[in-house]
Automatic annotation (TrEMBL):
Organism: Novosphingobium aquae
Pfam families (UniProt xref): UGSC
InterPro entries according to UniProt: UGSC-like_dom
Name of this chain's protein: UGSC-like domain-containing protein
Domain of life: Bacteria
Domain named UGSC-like: residues: 9-90
Length: 105
């Protein structure tokens, strides 16, 4: 809205920060002996990519274990809210130490 002095009232385009910044989780020093969850949105070629990624990671970390993306369901779509909300508990049940989340556009 313009005032008579030629100035306009504007609104900052970024929303108000609602969450406080938290420290990042401690990084793993190795994947050997660790369990890694695979999360995917069922788009593009994640099934092929995860097969290749597993193979390559096992070359460097022969004792790494994987929990397949098939275990979790699509992280995008009809049930995404429920699936994402269930991840902390599912990770605990499955002994997951780390996760790889992939998506396609």
């Amino acid at each position: 809205m313009a005032s008579s002095d030629g100035k306009y009232q504007v609104v900052w385009p970024c929303g108000e920060r609602r969450l406080k910044v938290r420290k990042l989780a401690r990084r793993l020093d190795t994947l050997n002996g660790k369990t890694v969850a695979q999360l995917w949105d069922y788009l593009f070629a994640g099934d092929e990519i995860y097969d290749e990624l597993e193979s390559k990671l096992r070359e460097t970390y022969p004792d790494v274990k994987f929990v397949s993306w098939r275990e979790f369901g699509s992280t995008h779509g009809l049930n995404e809210k429920e699936i994402l909300a269930s991840l902390p508990q599912r990770f605990k049940e499955l002994g997951v130490d780390a996760a790889i989340s992939s998506m396609a556009c």
